[in-house]
């Protein structure tokens, strides 16, 4: 009869010794080889087993286990639940399913939600261990009200808070739970700006909770040039608040106008225009699917009903839109002149076209396109400096200068009649 090979026992510690059962403790006592991180091994200072520390040397640890597991009792200590972003999956793959036994315990996420007494059946879960994180974080938060984030030493809660602000995701409140289960455990809620400049103890976990629409400042009051943080946007790609306010003034919006927002991006200009022209209509045209999602999210945030979102690559599709009183084009790249020329065909009498660009080449191309359309042109450059906190005061940090072109379509001259 073939002798049964001993199993490698992988034990989740949960939050600490208090979460281990009598069976767990007995297995640790019997271990001839005890494997775990420094924090785990320190829980059993009297254990006589050979101790192997897990650090960044996971492959070396696996080789050591393979050399010992056939003839010695091996116990591996894991954080929380070994199969929840833990070492369990690695050891199953390396040692084989038939050579390991998993002892699950309380995961850090379950413990975190228990601490704040919040159901988490619909929460998103993201581990930043060994990942770049930016795209993963943005994708996980799309449409979610709740998310738990496992941090690491480089992608800290401060890193998460900074990325959320960069992405325009300031609709979230942040809870940081430090050293769960330890004597110096700490749980606190933070504004993102505060969290971004705070150093937290390891290990920690972050919970992000989207604020309800009723409590968001964007719905309590509105002024042109709302803070960028009121809008969902990616990597700072948004018409900045001060530029947006000047742009809206150049559009000279009136109630019941029809407005085209071409190359709408995250929709910040179109959203504000829609609030100003109601019951008029705004058509936001954007080709990028991810930006379309941002426009929809911003439309929901501001509860804007008079905004139509169209996914199209300009200058296609304009003929199907209602004729505009106002046109805004936010950039346009190399195709700016072609977009302006096509859009200008539909601009109503006394209508206004406004173009924002940061490219010197497009300043001249835009002026020529407006003149070819017969528009009366005006040009301003806007340079904004924003205050940036320093250790004992503030300094101004220059933003990119933006050129704002305005073109006005003159009223058509009526032909004189006989007898005039």
Describe the structure.
Helix 12 links the parallel strand 12 (281-286) and strand 13. This protein has a seven-stranded mixed beta sheet with strand order 13-12-11-14-15-19-16, sandwiched between helices. Strands 3-2-4-1-5 form a five-stranded parallel beta sheet, with helices on both faces. The longest helix is centred in the C-terminal third of the chain and has 14 residues, at 289-302. It is built from 14 helices and 19 strands. It has helices at 22-30, 38-41, 58-68, 88-95, 108-116, 134-141, 157-166, 192-196, 217-220, 241-251, 268-277, 289-302, 336-344, 360-372, and strands spanning 8-12, 33-36, 50-53, 74-78, 100-103, 124-127, 146-150, 172-178, 186-190, 204-210, 258-262, 281-286, 307-311, 326-330, 352-357, 376-382, 385-390, 393-398, 402-408. It is an alpha/beta fold and 420 residues long. The model has no long low-confidence stretch (mean pLDDT 89). Helix 13 runs parallel beside helix 14 (360-372). The protein folds into three domains: 8-106, Cobalt-precorrin-4 Transmethylase, domain 1 (3-Layer(aba) Sandwich); 109-211, Tetrapyrrole methylase, C-terminal domain (Methyltransferase, Cobalt-precorrin-4 Transmethylase, Domain 2, 2-Layer Sandwich); 219-408, Vaccinia Virus protein VP39 (Rossmann fold, 3-Layer(aba) Sandwich).
